[in-house]
Amino acid sequence: MAVKTIEWKKDRVIMLDQRLLPHREVYRVCRDYNQVAAAIRQMVIRGAPAIGVAAAYGIALGMQKSKADGTRQFAVEFTKLGDLMAGTRPTAVNLFWAIDKMKKAFATGIQAGESVAELKARLDAEAQKIHDDDVASCQTMGRFGAEVVPDIPGGARILTHCNAGALATAGYGTALGVIRAAAERGKVLSVFADETRPFMQGARLTAWELTKDNIPTTVITESMAGPLMRDGKIDFVVVGADRIAANGDFANKIGTYTVAMMAKAHGVPFYVAAPLSTIDMKTPDGAAIPIEERNRREVTHVGSTQLAPDAASVWNPAFDVTPHALLSGIITERGICRAPFDQSLRALFD
Ligand code: MRU
Q: Is the terminal CB of the chain with fewer CB neighbours within 10 Å at N or C?
């Protein structure tokens, strides 16, 4: 897809405002780190790998503009910036992974006795590398994932949830990367995109991305996925992830768990596609993953139209946890992990 999700221009970070899609393609220019942090919080940019890249650029941008005349003051500012970025969203571990990468690059520079100017150059290069590596990982995941899409005459009918595409990453996508790669090999008949209440990433973003790539796409509400599977109209499910725990349980957009249960009940292969930056070996299982709760307005309103009465309470968790027992496999840039996931995931890092 030709559209750039995020771009680094050394003195500014440019992001496609995903809140306005598919109606308007508006690029936001962040000229300071506070604007980058606000963009992540307000979901101008969203999706686990994409917010990791945004946080890295936010740090690089903030440090680029630092007026510190010595490394001591520079280090104080760097710590403050890392903390700010870490407070933007809690569930996607890619955010913390990217901040950690920046911290390690900074520590290496300090140990080497680098000047403020050299540290700035190092942070700039590290953020750019995080971006480039994510694109490469998505493309490799696509190749591995395309292999497990069933070979069906005329192509497979694939269901996905939320948006795990170029918009949710630095480019190409995780789950949509698999779909793109499979489509390039002639293995895809059509894609069913769950609309993904309440933020509508499926209807607004996934359908936008896939139709731009001329991949036949049908938008459905979440409640329609079960009957489609029962009627034998879905051959394969692939979704992204915001955090995969050490035992294979994973957090993804609210509604993923229900899709996984349906897939299990109807014998449909259910895969998650995610880079190693999404795997959190320090989190033992799904119960330990922090789940972001978002504001009530996302549920009570559609656009500016209020649907639910003010007096009603609202529960709005942004993510749910799917237990590893429902998974057919985890597609990564190092290959496909199978059960027992605690062992296959561990082997990725050995
Ligand atoms: O709240 P969002 O839109 O940031 O949630 C995004 C998702 O849940 C995606 O499915 C996930 O990050 C995988 S993206 C490659």
A: C
